[in-house]
């Protein structure tokens, strides 16, 4: 098969989970004997446009491209510059002639993409993996008005009320506009049952959404201290530092533990690109208050994860929104590390409370601090949870499930209707 893979960025430019999963699957399709082309969208944050074409190289590889798509209406998820976008996309489609198009995100490309695919290639199979809630939520796709208040789109009436400048008719038209374009997609995939159920409640047909978990590339697990008698006191955070990822909650919890003179270490891995200045100022102050127990170790590359994971005993994922399938949880599980995480969304599916990790209340520094203190002082708890950590599926096995879906095989049974 010829498989065209779209994502809203490239891991070399922005190390997000969706981009990473998309590129890994594109490579797995090639290893399975199929021809795949990865196309990542970009804008002025990472690249300037080149005259004459929307396409740019990202590496010496001939199977990865960037498409400059900097004219984009984020509220409607719409491609504004169709006069430039459509001819270049048509040229790509007519030259590559894919049998399958696997969409991982429509940001920057626009919701018009599936309709354009169908017009240019009437027989192409279009599959879209739903990694988050951007289609539903105009508030940056988080389905939260604040860390303590869920989006009204999840309740009766179904309309977002997080954007005061958006009138009810704007939101209704946005929803109708996006749903109309998504109707062109043949099948959707959700990496978690929680995300699937949210989209069914929003109105996507239940029979068109399958559940396929994200996979991870094969790796050799790094050694852990599960077999030793020393207390488990080293916690690790991996990922971008953003308000919705809960880094403030984690640092506030660390401050409480430091005040109680608990002997612990928290290693924070990740940068804070494109974040609000006030947020950066707040976390800078928290890092100063929690030193030296908390070490701010900065951004990292995907190939560094194993080495960074080695000194860590517990991985903490304190997100305050409905995460779908956080990559960091799968990375921790690859290396046998139990995870302490907010007990909501896909996080609660990926980590079983008291079995292979621990749940805490979302956006509650006290709850997190108590759980971290318990974890640090209980060697037997650590051993039991670490022994139960489940290795995530390999990228190769997940790619086989997708290939079965592309070919119409029944190797990936549908989830039951909500």
TrEMBL record:
One Pfam family per UniProt? Glyco_trans_1_4
The record's section on Gene3D superfamilies has: Glycogen Phosphorylase B (3.40.50.2000)
Positions of the Glycosyltransferase subfamily 4-like N-terminal domain: 15-215
Name the source's superkingdom: Bacteria
Transmembrane stretches in the record are: none
User: InterPro entries recorded for this chain?
Assistant: Glyco_trans_4-like_N (IPR028098), Glycosyltransferase_grp1 (IPR050194)
For this entry, the protein name equals Glycosyltransferase family 4 protein
């Amino acid at each position: 098969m010829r498989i065209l893979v779209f994502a809203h960025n490239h891991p070399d430019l922005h190390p997000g989970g969706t981009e990473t999963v998309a590129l890994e699957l594109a490579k797995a399709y090639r290893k399975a004997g199929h021809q795949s082309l990865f196309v990542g969208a970009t804008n002025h944050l990472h690249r300037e446009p080149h005259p004459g074409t929307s396409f740019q190289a990202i590496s010496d590889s001939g199977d990865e491209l960037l498409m400059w798509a900097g004219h984009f209406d984020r509220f409607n998820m719409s491609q504004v510059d169709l006069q430039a976008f459509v001819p270049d996309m048509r040229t790509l489609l007519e030259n590559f002639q894919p049998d399958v198009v696997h969409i991982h995100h429509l940001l920057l490309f626009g919701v018009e993409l599936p309709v354009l695919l169908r017009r240019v290639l009437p027989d192409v199979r279009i599959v879209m993996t739903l990694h988050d809630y951007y289609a539903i939520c105009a508030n940056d796709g988080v389905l939260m008005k604040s860390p303590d208040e869920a989006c009204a789109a999840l309740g009766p009436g179904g309309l977002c009320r997080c954007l005061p400048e958006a009138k009810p008719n704007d939101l209704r038209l946005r929803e109708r506009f996006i749903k109309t374009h998504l109707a062109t997609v043949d099948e959707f995939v959700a990496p978690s049952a929680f995300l699937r159920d949210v989209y069914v409640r929003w109105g996507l047909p239940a029979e068109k959404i399958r559940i396929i978990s994200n996979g991870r590339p094969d790796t050799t697990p790094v050694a852990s201290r599960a077999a030793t008698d020393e207390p488990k006191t080293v916690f690790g955070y991996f990922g971008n530092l953003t308000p919705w990822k809960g880094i403030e909650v984690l640092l506030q919890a660390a401050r409480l533990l430091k005040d109680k003179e608990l002997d612990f270490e928290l290693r924070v891995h990740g940068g804070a690109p494109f974040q609000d200045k006030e947020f950066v100022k707040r976390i800078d102050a928290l890092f100063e208050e929690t030193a030296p127990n908390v070490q701010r170790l900065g951004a990292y590359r995907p190939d560094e994860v194993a080495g960074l994971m080695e000194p860590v005993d517990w991985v903490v994922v304190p997100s305050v929104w409905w995460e779908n399938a956080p990559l960091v949880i799968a990375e921790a599980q690859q290396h046998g590390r139990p995870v302490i995480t907010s007990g909501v969304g896909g996080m609660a599916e990926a980590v079983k409370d008291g079995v292979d990790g621990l749940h805490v209340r979302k956006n509650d520094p006290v709850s997190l601090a108590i759980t971290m203190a318990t974890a640090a002082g209980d060697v037997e708890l650590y051993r039991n949870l670490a022994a139960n950590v489940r290795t995530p599926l390999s990228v190769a096995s997940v790619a086989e499930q997708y290939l079965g879906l592309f070919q119409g095989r029944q190797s990936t049974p549908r989830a039951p209707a909500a």
